[in-house]
Amino acid sequence: MSYNFGFQHQLPSNVILDVNYVGNVGRHLPYTLNLNQLPVGTLLSPPNSTTNVNALRPYLGYSNITMRERTDTSNYNGLQVNATRRFDLGLSFGVAYTFSKTMDKFGGATPQDSFAPALDIARANIDIPHILSVNYIYELPFFKKSGNPFQRTVLGGWGVAGVTAAQSGAPVSVNVPTDIARIGSGASRATLIGNPLLAAGERTPGRWFNTAAFQAPGAMTPGTFGNSGRNILRGPGFQNWDVTLLKTFIVKEKMRLQFRAESFNVLNHANFTSINTTVAFNAAGAASNGFGGVNGAGPGRVMEFALKLLF
Question: What is the pTM of this model?
Answer without folding.
Answer: 0.88
